[in-house]
UniProtKB/TrEMBL annotation:
Keywords: Membrane, Transmembrane, Transmembrane helix. The chain crosses the membrane at residues 350-369. It comes from the Eukaryota. This is Uncharacterized protein.
């Protein structure tokens, strides 16, 4: 009996990855297996935001009608492992393309190209992808790599048909001559720059950026858009998938794609923006989460700020964007009385302004009182001489 129970608890990895059939839905057992495979950890809780993104990406890819070769969750996980092993090879290298069936020549139309919209027998789905079909076309193979990277590393690379569905995201290009490692380096260029500040100020946080600076914080699922400031719209993108960052950092496998330093810096920038010891930021985030729910990762409001996190020179990947945000915040001016009241960046100016406001208010108040008193005196003087 225990043997049967163990077998029934195993996830069905041969369900279709991109499908509208309810039988192919991403259940809890599949979620646990995917997290354990991608992040090499057994901590599966608090991953609702990531899997909401996962499902939306699969649905977007299905609606975009871009052909892919991978069909099942097992295909996806196998391709992730293959890309890890070949991360230093060009995307068009035989070592990378060896995962797929032999590529079909452009003028060869004898064999139909497999895609996720085709019906496959359960026996076929049990086979490895390379042995499932006699051939596949290059576009489907390339799209499969793009989709896998989007689901795995949350980088918005892929078919141009999906870009119109995410107009706010940047679209990094992964050329055929670039390896996965080269592509990641192009998305996250490290920069060596001297310290321009002694430390990041405590006032540089999400609450002040919105309530004082007038910026709108926009939650993004695309890691490369983290801390991107759009000055025309007054928006700042914040990547919020803390559980994914912790999971990838926890894996620490020798073939990990994203640099550990990038993952750690990203976590610390979130802690800078939403310091859990700051009551205003804590209340602000809880209100945002109550409104957005699983659209954002609740862990974004509970990241420990490490001892070095306020040192600007420690940020090799995100330092320049942090500087840009700080400069825009410092240059912003209050636009209403509420912002004037909350803006304590320049204490002398703040006291001077509110003392001036108080003087004007008292002048108007006493002037009004004096006017009313004068009117009353005239009224009673005019009526005091009249007989009853």
């Amino acid at each position: 009996m225990s043997f049967i129970s163990a077998r029934t608890s195993e996830p069905d990895l041969h369900k279709l990855l991109v499908s509208e059939d309810p039988d192919d839905a991403l259940d809890n057992r599949l979620q646990d297996h995917i997290i354990a495979s991608l992040w090499s950890t057994q901590h599966h809780h608090n991953s609702a935001a990531y899997f909401k993104y996962f499902k939306e990406e699969c649905e977007v890819w299905r609606l975009s009608d871009s052909p892919v070769v991978i069909q099942t969750y097992q295909d996806f996980l196998d391709l992730v492992q293959h890309l890890k092993r070949t991360r230093n090879e060009k995307r068009s290298a035989p070592a990378v393309l060896d995962f797929f069936p032999p590529l079909q020549a452009a003028d060869d139309e004898k064999t139909p190209t497999p895609s996720l919209i085709e019906e496959s027998t359960p026996e076929q789905l049990q086979l490895s992808l390379r042995h499932r079909y006699p051939c596949c076309d290059p576009v489907s193979a390339t799209n499969s790599i793009f989709l896998t990277v989007r689901l795995w590393l949350m980088l918005n690379v892929g078919s141009s048909a999906t870009f119109t569905l995410f107009p706010g995201r940047s679209s990094p290009e992964w050329t055929e001559e670039q390896s996965l490692e080269d592509f990641i380096d192009s998305c996250f260029p490290a920069s060596e720059w001297g310290p321009r500040l002694s430390q990041w100020p405590f006032s540089l946080n999400a609450y002040n950026l919105e309530r004082v600076g007038g910026f709108e914080l926009v939650w993004t699922d695309h890691l490369a858009d983290h801390l991107y400031l759009n000055e025309d719209l007054g928006t700042i993108n914040v990547y919020h998938h803390v559980q994914a960052l912790r999971g990838l950092l926890h894996a620490k496998s020798p073939d990990q794609a994203l640099p550990d330093r990038l993952l750690l810096e990203t976590l610390q920038t979130i802690a800078l923006f939403i310091p859990r010891a700051n009551r205003d930021c804590k209340r602000w985030f809880e209100k945002v989460y109550a409104r957005c729910g699983d659209d954002i990762d609740h862990g974004a409001g509970d990241v420990e700020l490490l001892h070095w996190a306020r040192s600007p020179e420690k940020y090799k990947f995100w330092g320049q964007r942090l500087i840009t945000i700080k400069m825009a915040y410092d240059a912003s001016e209050p636009k209403n009385l509420g912002q004037w009241w909350r803006d304590r960046r320049r204490r002398v100016e703040w006291y001077t302004f509110w003392v001036a406001v108080l003087v004007v208010f008292l002048t108007i108040l006493f002037g009004l009182i004096q006017s009313i008193t004068g009117v009353m005196q005239v009224y009673y003087a005019a009526h005091s001489g009249q007989s009853p």
